[in-house]
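re: the backbone from monday

yeah here it is again, tokenized this time
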């Protein structure tokens, strides 16, 4: 049996479409800014900057590109 580990760091929601990670394993590309919060699936406001991007969730605050 192969089973994915339920790590705390695993996103609960797809950042590309906002579905639960059980429904979508992730359709966004690594270098694209997330459109939905991986923790709650809410749509996030994304600001693209010259050095990357900033995404803001109402519940979870800002995320920045690495
Ligand atoms: Zn998706
Ligand atoms: Zn959130």
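seq for it, each position gets an aa:
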């Amino acid at each position: 049996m192969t089973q994915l580990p339920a790590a705390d760091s695993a996103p609960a929601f797809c950042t590309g479409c906002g579905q639960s990670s059980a429904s979508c394993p992730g359709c966004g590309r690594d270098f694209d800014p997330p459109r939905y919060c991986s923790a709650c699936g809410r749509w996030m406001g994304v600001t693209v900057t010259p050095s990357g991007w900033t995404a803001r969730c109402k519940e979870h605050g800002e995320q920045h590109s690495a």
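The two ends are 35 Å apart (CA to CA). The chain has one domain: 10-66.
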